[in-house]
Each structure stands twice: as C-alpha cells, then as structure tokens.
Amino acid sequence: MPRLEIKTPWAERWYDTIGAMKHKQYSTPRPFSMYVAEHIEKLERDNNIHIPKVS
Description:
Shape: extended
Number of strands: 0
Radius of gyration: 16 Å
Largest sheet: none
C-alpha cells in the first residue's frame, strides 16, 4: 500500500517534538491523561461549558 505524506508545518513540528522526546527518553511527571483531565476541568469551570469526553 502506498504511503500518503501530509506535509504541513504543524505536522512537522509535532513529529520533531515527539522524536526529540523519544531521543531524550522524556517522561512526564504524571500521566498525560491526568494532565489533560485537570485542564479540561479548569476550562469547563472557568467558561461554564461542558467538554464531551471521548473514550
């Protein structure tokens, strides 16, 4: 199957960032899902909105 390449500045930046994290064996101080959940709660509270959770 042929590979489709999507070339955008943001895609390249994410690819470079993830590659650097892998090279440096970066690990977050807490699980990423907890980090996201905390920020979602703050956004919901500050803006009085509900952000749907997708599982």
